[in-house]
Amino acid sequence: MLSVVPRAISVRAPSKVNLHLAVGDLRPDGYHELTTVFQALSLSDQVDLVPAPALTVRVRGEGARDVPTDRRNLVWKAATRLAHRAGREPLVEISIDKGIPVAGGMAGGSADAAAALLGLNALWQLDLSRDELAEFALELGSDVPFAMHGGTALGTGRGEKLLPVLARDTFHWVLAFGKGGLSTPDVFRELDRLRGQGQPPKLGDPEKLMHALAAGDPAQLAPLLGNDLQAAAISLKPELRRTLRAGITAGALAGIVSGSGPTCAFLCADADAAVEVSTELSGAGVCRSVRVAYGPVSGARVIDIEPIV
Ligand code: ATP
């Protein structure tokens, strides 16, 4: 509980990559049954919250033009629902500084929603526990609880039932942002279509991958990375095949499509290798832009509080 009344609050929330994303059958509620291992990455968004006469959302940074600033934005939903629960009006200006690519398969919207929940809990002095916030998080989207949780975690159900996974040391990644985004529902639909034609084969369980994480060995982890959505993302954006090949040629240990894509994530041997891979990939002309990142990092966290003086 904060001892001062905050005047403004800044929260940072991580992106994610799915090291293992096994997509099961379509459930009656329209969601697919997932088994996934998430890792939270240092590539992040910052969300600033300041009391204001009305709810407003502003967005700048990576892909800002493609992000709605009205009720369609997940932070808008987070603010109105939390305010309703607290019996107050959502009188806050929310400014999002995006580092996470929009519709990139790295759960940027979910990161912003988690950041908004955490920040408003502090700004409005609601004193909700992390568990209570996690329940709210799930109402906003399947990936929001993980953005709150961070680290490395096994997700089941819609991906929202989380168990921490031991990951020794830090893993180093290069991220290649695609030209344009991919809609997550479209990618799931494409997977259903491909499976209707009898392909591609389904991923197994992530047991070996979890051992490699516990060992902290990127070379052991690399061949175990897998994503059932990758074939569907490539089917919708065939140029991703070239991007994935280019990352390996540049020296990455392995490359996968991140979540529903089109961001490609390349696991590298260490921090120096990641810088080399990123430099070479930038020059290869196979993606819009390239970033270096590491994980695991923590979930959404308050980075600055401006107290009332
Ligand atoms: P997923 O969590 O399904 O992997 P993603 O990472 O592919 O999602 P997001 O960047 O979260 O994609 O955005 C998906 C869509 O959600 C965007 O096209 C945008 O219209 C909408 N959206 C709503 N709120 C936000 C937000 N705060 N940041 C980015 N996109 C948002």
From TrEMBL:
The active site is at 16, 143. Its EC number is 2.7.1.148. Pfam families: GHMP_kinases_C, GHMP_kinases_N. It catalyses: 4-CDP-2-C-methyl-D-erythritol + ATP = 4-CDP-2-C-methyl-D-erythritol 2-phosphate + ADP + H(+). Gene3D superfamilies: 3.30.230.10, GHMP kinase, C-terminal domain. SUPFAM superfamilies: GHMP Kinase, C-terminal domain, Ribosomal protein S5 domain 2-like. Residues 209-283 form the GHMP kinase C-terminal domain. GO terms for biological process: isopentenyl diphosphate biosynthetic process, methylerythritol 4-phosphate pathway; terpenoid biosynthetic process. Residues 73-151 form the GHMP kinase N-terminal domain. The keyword Phosphoprotein does not apply. Coiled coil: none annotated. One of its GO terms (molecular function) is ATP binding. ATP binds at residues 101-111. Pathway: Isoprenoid biosynthesis; isopentenyl diphosphate biosynthesis via DXP pathway; isopentenyl diphosphate from 1-deoxy-D-xylulose 5-phosphate: step 3/6. It is an enzyme of class 2 (transferase). Keywords: ATP-binding, Isoprene biosynthesis, Kinase, Nucleotide-binding, Transferase. NCBIfam families: ispE (TIGR00154), PRK03188.1 (NF002870). Belongs to the GHMP kinase family. IspE subfamily. Catalyzes the phosphorylation of the position 2 hydroxy group of 4-diphosphocytidyl-2C-methyl-D-erythritol. This is 4-diphosphocytidyl-2-C-methyl-D-erythritol kinase. It comes from Antrihabitans cavernicola. The gene is ispE.
